[in-house]
Amino acid sequence: MINITNLSVLALAAFGSVQALPQNYPSGTATAAAPAATDDQTQLFIDLLTAPTAVKRFQRLLVQGTSLLTGDALRALTVFSFNNATPNPGAKGGALKSANIETFPILTDLGISTTVAFLNPCGINTPHVHPRATEFLTLVEGKNLKFGYVLENGLVGPDKNPEIAGTLNKFEGTVFPMGSIHFQFNDNCDSATFVATLNSEDPGTSQIAQNFFALNDEVVNATLGFPREIDGKNIEEFRKYIPANLAQDIEVCLRRCEKRDDDKKDDYEKKGDYKNDDYKNDDYKNDDYKNKDGYEKDY
């Protein structure tokens, strides 16, 4: 069973990590750092955050002179596109794009933000917390999206499992309370898409495994209680193997999807759909017939 402990171990382990994935699996994308603000953008943020009233804030953003902006100028400030998510280096599990106070300034002081995630087959949104928001997540494409979260200390008795876990199918949703450690895992050979709305325009995100290993070596060793396995000499080796967020690393899922691909290829060949290796075109080299956006092409 997939749970937060399993996923944290996967994120920390040197073997079976994201770097060891078969090369024919698609390289996914995750939300990249926001571009540095220009002087004009910096002044805009200052003006919005210091506006004495809500209407003054909207005037600063949407009004020129005494008239409302029109056309493309108004659209650019009031419509957010979740298309064209850009990658974090090394992320293989999918793509994220967020509308928040930094990327969509009209959200300033509105207490809401939204992230859309496009998880690749076997993609994981690794365990993380939102320090300033509760999240409501809805699966809008796909099935069997596994999730889990752990609340604060003391929820259950000693030695009892505190993880709240479940599965979402299309158009089902769940909530992750503020500060809870939570994850999502697309345990499928097809892509999945979810929409996550949070009750803050600046919810923040902190990846558990990645940030834990950024702590002082002695603290990491003492917390894990494994000084023989992780010490000052090899802790840097472990750090190297921590995957980027939206890792793609569940071996059982990957093997299942590889087998499905092999079976499909065999079926195509038996039917004569591909003759004389014609299927090995630009989209199908070295057994890689995945397209840029999804998991496989339709032939």
From TrEMBL:
Region called Disordered, residue ranges: 260-299
Secretion signal span: 1-20
GO MF terms, alphabetically ordered: manganese ion binding
Superkingdom, taxonomy of origin: Eukaryota
SMART domains recorded: Cupin_1
Alphabetized Gene3D superfamilies for the sequence: Jelly Rolls
Alphabetic keyword roster: Manganese, Metal-binding, Secreted, Signal
Protein name from the UniProt record: Cupin type-1 domain-containing protein
